[in-house]
Specification:
The complex is a heterotrimer of chains A (about 650), B (about 450) and C (about 280). By secondary structure, chain A is mostly helical. Chain A has helices at about 35, 40-70, 80-115, 125-145, 175-205, 215-250, 260-295, 305-315, 330-360, 370-390, 395-400, 405-435, 440-465, 485-515, 550-555, 560-575, 585-605, 605-625; strands at about 365, 435, 515, 580, 630-635. In chain B, the strands form four sheets. Chain B has a five-stranded mixed β-sheet. A five-stranded mixed β-sheet of chain B has the order 5-11-10-7-8. A two-stranded antiparallel ribbon of chain B has the order 12-13. Chain B has three domains: about 5-90 and about 115-145, no CATH class; about 150-275, Sandwich (Immunoglobulin-like), CATH 2.60.40.420; about 295-445, Cytochrome c-like domain (Cytochrome Bc1 Complex, Chain D, domain 2, Orthogonal Bundle). Classes of the chains: A mainly alpha (about 650), B alpha+beta (about 450), C mainly alpha (about 280).
Chain lengths: ~650, ~450, ~280
């Protein structure tokens, strides 16, 4: 690691050596481990999110395969009841909090600032912090596999009073639920902090001319998702705090014997949990709304309506939580109201599908792999949407609730929806991020394997559910008429697993050996494609001026005008001191590590250790504030390469 | 060569080739049978095999389930029609506007149109219209399924179902027994057919959910909350039910049955239930045994240790469960008073009596299911196993293998050492003891 | 420091470097407060749900609370908001000395509020038998007001740090004065003063009700604490003297303003908690 003592204004006169305490020496490594541990570059943070979420995606997928092996045949004893319960709890928790959400966050981080013409997010160090805290929460959630009391086994919804210490499994000191509680709380910190950052970035860091109604739809969906996270996570945080106090300090928020109301947990959980559903799907819709226009060579059909319907979905998402509780005996009025509200939310969702079809209409559709995944998304999401409408009718839901029909429904929206879109996004932006392109043949093969495997797995589950098979059951009898559907689902899961394996092997291969491509290989429309690939650290040599929606498409059609404008902006920026870049920092990582250790001590009911963690956290935050945002300036030559500073304090 | 119908027949659940499996077994058998299974598996889909079964929501036997199914069909048809329409347009657009040539960079792009407000608003209005079609029957059904209709309320029969980890207790508040309160039974709810039944839903521990798919959709049993549902069986019959809310380790095997009887049968059943437990002459505690200490050969069966989680039913039972239930009401032939007397003693010695009530006998506990008429039930272990000698024997000798984590094992057979926190054996039941207990329990008709 | 600290007059209502003109820190704080609204919304609802559906054997809140004390601390917290607003106003005019005084006033009032709460909790636990686990009322009450107290405590800490920061010499980067060490010493002295002050005051309030109480014995019993308190206050006065040019100035107004937003929000939350928790039975 090469340290520079001057954190400010590289390239200016640095003769006067600064006297700063050693702790404030800013790391400047641009390669190697330290550069990643201390990074504040939104693209690197995005990659960190991406890689770790994909690892957890594979873990969650492996858990799913074990579940399907257990259920392949009736009365199977491949897994014990306890292990099965741990697996389905961790499968859901992992997929939601450690795979889909952070993978979306990876795209938010990497793509969103590029789409709005920014050089970084508003608070770069906070961004790094959000990632490291995410990792801390992920570790705490998964630690259970390696300790005696096992992994969390109360379901991802953790309904009280099953989570109370009285009903923990037969181990004397069961800390699995404590790990679950602590892990989710820490993940909540990460999500909220990250989202605050995205909100400020999108609202405040747009390039000149990038009005709100010119924002790419993916950025719009990022903004709405961030607001959903910021407003919904407090509810589950409170619920988790109450549960934590019940388990650790003898309170009785959900203790039935002292008058606690378990229904309250459900309300708090689903006030978070339903917006969470949209937190998982809106980024996917954003990605699809980027891919379809690109490969149709046409603007998005009805942009204002797509944006508006996204906002309406976000808003209504806060008003339908009780449709997860139709069977809790809410009474007729509440049931009717939430039934209607749930049906209403189908309208803005349907609108999006109409508009995507409108985008295809009269276009020139190129069936590249990202487009295949995107179209697959539209088909599968429609399926999931229609089974969703079926649940919205509360009387029908009385039969479907907690049955495999629901499992089929949400896997259609979460795999067929979110995952398909995220896989499409990886394909789509791979050339931008790594400068290489995935082979079309292998890409399409993996698409078809995933598509077929997915449908073979989950389509039969509709029938299983309507045929009376409840969810979260580790076994079933052979006389219930569920055998063949379960077996086929398990075979499908294996096909899906193979498809996913092919997908990721192809990605890894492409990363090392794939075909290199130039700028803008797809003929895209948004600003992220206007820069070289892989993108330089400073993103834009010149901050673009935006004249239209689909800013890059406009640039491509008005080259002369844009050239003149860029030369002018470049000169102006140089006169203001050059390109300002944020400095790296150790403290986000230190603060997150303090949370991790403090959290682990707390779950072990070692409160002195927890307090020590808190003290370290305070010190980290104090030093973080003390060192200041820092930063330095870059100057580019004609080709866009940074000019080395005179005094040799370079960062290469 | 097998005919199609024979194939479908071959697929009938009881003959399903897989029983208890390990991973290697699963994979080996799976691959060898995958092809025929996919073929045979798709067949029931086409013939409706995936829509029938003991818990099928498609085969309704009461007005509540019927109403719910009708609403489902409305949502289904609206969805299918919309799906076909949208999918057709999507498929057409995909095929029609697809370009085959790889490089488009030299071609002029299509017209850069931005949308058509008229079409968009029209589609919004259309989808709202479709939702109204769903909403109207939904609203009507919400009120209908919530509680017994006003007109029938006077005729409604009331029972209280209480969820325990992991079994159901059923109480009959309308049937009070002198000196011991309401009639109590467990895991098999007997109701009058053709009469609305209002089920009060309670729980003593965590959240459970009461679900008899053929009679009514589920309603949760919430702690500190008085939920209820209503159902009506149109005809006498035997129905499967299952807990539908995750309630801990053995949630999957928390099952129950509902038996609907004609008015006359129901009255007879009630009268029988209200009387104290049946005592086979000469088996009272303290009575002189008729023929010395019972030995193994007295038992009518030889116990064969079964693999963990082997199927808990027999084919005959599966084919005609209602008949099996009626058969169970009869006293078994060849009862052995010596064994029964021995079993009744063991019932106290093995601490069964502390948790299970046998009204009229020594059993006095209330934390386990009431066993006053256990011999007349078709299932044991919370609806998990058919009530045969073999199964009861298995349940008594290795309860934790049958139902992991159950309270009869944890807290009964093994208890926690308050100092070390370890589970230590309190008692065990050997094969001979199990035979005596089985004889005693099966004599309780 | 940001490179955008342009020369000339500072416009406190418009930041030319952002798309909307709202400074990033301010927008961040507003969004965070929106999230915190939901946070307290959930906490308050939880308390209210159990107040409306009290389980059997719940204590009567009227027999637990002493409205007079809490009314006083509510008033104090409100006044601290006024001082906070004055501090923001002062720094926007570049008046560092007035800013410091107002920050100190805000800190002082915030500490009185916290001391009242510490006293109240102790009083409820020891004299009224209301503990965290004694009843649902206790659980929700302590969790709600305790969480709010944590917010106030974090606010006080932030205020103290901001106060100390205002002493950073203008030439800190070049000067030989060990400013980092100085700031930590300052913080520690402040911490000692706060802890001893709150301890002495709360203990005084608590013992006042004991029949055998006399001021003399109290003072002699707390001699060490009082000496420590006096010493630390003296230290604070020494450290708080004017020491030449400082780095802190008008361009830090946004930092003080963001902190002020947080402080006002915490006050407003209390304005909701006070009637909902303490006065519910009287409304």
């Amino acid at each position: 690691m090469q340290a520079i003592t001057k954190s400010d204004f590289i390239g200016k006169d640095t003769a006067a050596a600064e006297k700063r305490p050693f702790v404030f020496t800013r790391p400047t490594a641009k390669t190697g481990l330290v550069s990643w541990l201390t990074t504040v570059d939104h693209k690197r943070v995005g990659l960190l999110y991406g890689v770790s979420s994909l690892i957890f995606f594979l873990v969650g997928g492996f858990e799913a395969l074990l579940i399907r092996i257990q259920l392949a045949v009736p009365n199977n004893t491949f897994l014990s009841a306890q292990t099965y319960n741990e697996l389905f709890t961790m499968h859901a928790t992992t997929m939601i909090f450690l795979a889909v959400m952070p993978l979306s966050a990876a795209f938010f981080n990497y793509i969103m600032p590029l789409q709005i013409g920014a050089r970084d997010v508003a608070f770069p160090r906070l961004n790094g912090f959000a990632f490291w805290v995410f990792l801390a929460g992920a570790i705490i959630l998964n630690v259970g596999w390696f300790v005696k009391s096992g992994a969390p086994d109360v379901g991802w919804f953790g309904y009280a009073p099953l989570t109370s210490t009285a009903y923990s499994n037969q181990f004397a000191t069961d800390m699995s639920t404590d790990l679950w509680v602590m892990g989710l709380q820490i993940l909540g910190v990460s999500s909220v902090v990250g989202s605050l950052n995205f909100i400020v970035t999108i609202i405040n860091m747009r390039a000149p001319g990038m009005t709100m109604m010119r924002l790419p739809v993916f950025t719009w969906m990022t903004l709405i998702t961030a607001f959903l996270i910021v407003l919904s996570f407090p509810a589950i945080t409170i619920a988790l705090i109450a549960l934590m106090m019940d388990r650790s300090f003898g309170t009785s928020f959900f203790e039935v014997s002292n008058g606690g109301l378990p229904i309250l947990w459900q309300h708090l959980f689903w006030i978070f949990g339903h917006p969470e559903v949209y937190i998982l799907i809106l980024p996917a819709m954003g990605i699809i709304s980027e891919i379809l226009p690109t490969f149709s060579r046409k603007p998005l059909f009805g942009y204002p309506i797509i944006v508006f319907s996204g906002a309406v979905i976000g808003l209504l998402g806060f008003g339908v939580w009780s449709h997860h509780m139709f069977t809790t005996g809410m009474g007729t009025m509440a049931t009717a109201a939430f039934s209607i509200a749930t049906m209403a939310i189908a309208v803005p969702t349907g609108v999006k599908i109409f508009n995507w079809i409108g985008t295809l209409w009269n276009g020139q559709l190129q069936m590249r792999t990202p487009m295949m995944f995107a179209l697959g998304f539209v088909w599968m999401f429609m399926m999931g949407g229609f089974s969703g409408i079926m649940h919205s009718a509360a009387p029908a839901d009385a039969q479907q609730q907690d049955s495999y029909f629901v499992v089929a429904h949400f896997h259609y929206v979460l795999i067929g929806g979110s995952i398909f879109a995220l896989l499409a996004g990886i394909h789509y932006w791979f050339p931008l991020i790594f400068g290489r392109k995935v082979s079309e043949a292998w890409g399409k093969f993996s698409f078809w394997a995933i598509f077929v495997g997915f449908n073979v797995t989950f389509f039969p589950m509709h029938f299983l559910g309507l045929n009376g098979m409840p969810r979260r059951t580790f076994t079933y009898d052979g006389n219930m008429g569920w055998n063949s559907a379960n077996f086929i689902a398990s075979v499908g899961a294996m096909i899906l697993g193979i498809g996913m394996a092919v997908y990721f092997v192809v990605m890894l291969y492409t990363y090392f050996k794939g075909e290199k491509v130039g700028r803008d290989p797809w003929g895209a429309r948004t600003l992220e494609w206007s820069i070289p690939n892989p993108p330089p650290e400073y993103n834009f040599a010149v901050i673009p001026t935006v004249h239209a929606r689909d800013a890059f498409w406009y640039e491509k059609n008005h080259r002369d005008e844009i050239e003149r404008e860029k030369a002018k902006s470049a000169a102006e920026e140089e006169s203001h001191g050059g390109i300002h870049m944020p400095s790296q920092s150790w403290f986000p990582l230190l603060a997150a590590m303090a949370l991790l250790t403090g959290g682990l001590f707390f779950t072990n009911h070692n409160f002195m250790g927890a307090i020590a963690g808190g003290v370290v956290l305070f010190i980290a935050v104090y030093l973080w504030a003390w060192e200041g945002p820092g930063g330095y300036h870059l100057h580019l030559d004609k080709d866009g390469n940074p000019i080395e500073p005179k005094d040799g304090q370079a960062h290469h | 060569m097998r005919t199609l119908s024979r194939r479908a027949e071959a697929f009938r659940p009881p003959r399903f080739p897989f029983g208890d499996m390990t991973l290697t077994l699963t994979l080996r058998t799976a691959f060898s049978r995958a092809r025929s299974l996919v073929l045979v598996g798709l067949l029931p889909l086409l013939t409706g095999g995936w829509t029938s079964g003991p818990q099928s929501t498609f085969e309704t036997h009461g007005p509540v389930a019927k109403t719910q199914l009708d609403v489902f069909y409305v949502t289904l048809w609206v969805s299918v029609i919309l799906f076909v329409l949208v999918a057709a347009v999507l498929a057409y657009a995909t095929l029609r506007f697809r370009v085959r040539s790889g490089d488009l960079s030299n071609q002029p792009p299509p017209e850069q149109s931005h949308g058509n407000p008229l079409i968009e608003i029209g589609l919004i209005v259309l989808s709202i219209g479709a939702l109204v079609i769903i909403a109207v029957p939904t609203m009507r059904a919400i009120w209908y399924t919530y509680d017994v209709p006003e007109a029938e309320r006077a005729n409604a029969y009331e029972v209280t179902a209480t969820g325990y980890q992991w079994w159901f207790k059923f109480e009959y508040p309308q049937e009070q027994i002198e000196g011991s309160g309401a009639l109590v039974t467990g895991n098999e709810l007997v109701i009058p057919a053709g009469r609305p039944v209002r089920v009060n839903l309670r729980t003593v521990d965590v959240i459970h959910s009461f679900w008899v798919p053929k009679l009514a959709g589920k309603v949760d049993m919430m702690p500190n909350r008085g939920n209820h549902l209503w159902l009506k069986a149109d005809e006498p019959g035997y129905f499967w039910g299952q807990c539908a809310e995750f309630c801990g380790e053995s949630h999957a095997v928390m099952r129950f049955r509902v038996i609907a009887l004609s008015e006359a049968d129901f009255a007879a059943w009630l009268a029988q239930q209200k009387s104290p437990a049946r005592t086979v002459p000469g088996t009272q505690i303290g009575a002189t045994p008729a023929a010395g200490t019972p030995r193994v050969e007295f038992a009518s069966y030889k116990y064969e240790k079964q693999r963990p989680n082997s199927p808990g039913w027999s084919e005959g039972f599966d084919r005609a469960p209602f008949a099996a239930w009626q058969q169970k009401q009869q006293v078994d032939a060849g009862e052995k008073p010596e064994l029964i007397a021995q079993g009744r003693k063991l019932f106290i010695e093995k601490k069964c009596a502390g948790c299970h009530e046998v009204r009229g006998h020594e059993g006095a506990g209330i934390s386990g299911p009431n066993l006053t008429r256990i011999g007349a039930r078709t299932t044991i272990a919370g609806g998990l196993l058919e009530n045969t000698e073999q199964n009861l024997h298995r349940w008594l000798t290795e309860p934790n293998n049958v139902k992991p984590g159950n309270k009869m094992w944890f807290g009964g057979y093994v208890v926690r050492n308050s100092e070390t926190g370890a589970w230590e054996e309190q008692f065990s039941i050997n094969d001979d003891e199990a035979r005596s207990l089985v004889a005693y329990l099966h004599s309780l008709k | 420091m940001s490179s955008h600290s342009a020369s000339g007059a500072i416009d406190h209502h418009h930041d030319a470097t952002t798309s909307t003109g709202i400074p990033n820190k301010k927008l961040f704080m507003w969004t965070f407060l929106a999230s915190d609204c939901m946070f307290f919304g959930a906490l308050i609802s939880m308390h209210v749900v159990y107040r409306i559906h009290p389980p059997a054997g719940s204590p009567d809140p009227r027999s637990v609370f002493s409205i007079e004390l809490t009314s006083f601390s509510t008033f104090i917290l409100l006044m601290s908001s006024l001082l906070m607003a004055l501090a923001v106003n002062a720094i926007q005019k570049g008046n560092v000395r007035s800013t410091r005084n107002n920050l100190l006033g805000t800190i002082f009032f915030g500490l009185i509020f916290l001391a009242c709460q510490v006293y109240e909790f102790q009083h409820f636990v020891h004299d009224r038998g209301l503990t965290l686990s004694s009843s649902l009322f206790g659980s929700t009450f302590y969790t709600l007001t305790g969480t709010h107290g944590c917010h106030v405590a974090i606010g006080v800490l932030w205020l103290i740090l901001m106060y100390i920061r205002s002493f950073k010499p203008a030439d800190a980067e070049q000067s030989s004065q060990p400013w980092f060490i100085m700031s930590i010493v300052h913080l520690l002295v402040f911490a000692v003063a706060v802890i001893l002050g709150v301890y002495v005051v709360v203990d005084f309030a608590h013992q006042m009700h004991v029949p055998t109480f006399s001021v003399g014995s109290f003072l002699s019993g707390h001699l060490l604490s009082l000496i420590g308190l006096a010493a630390s206050i003296g230290g604070l006065m020494f450290l708080g003297r004017s020491r030449g040019q400082v780095d802190f100035g008008e361009r830090n107004a946004i930092d003080v303003e963001s902190m002020g937003l947080y402080w006002h929000f915490v006050d407003i939350v209390w304005i909701i908690i006070f009637p909902v928790v303490y006065l519910l039975e009287y409304i």
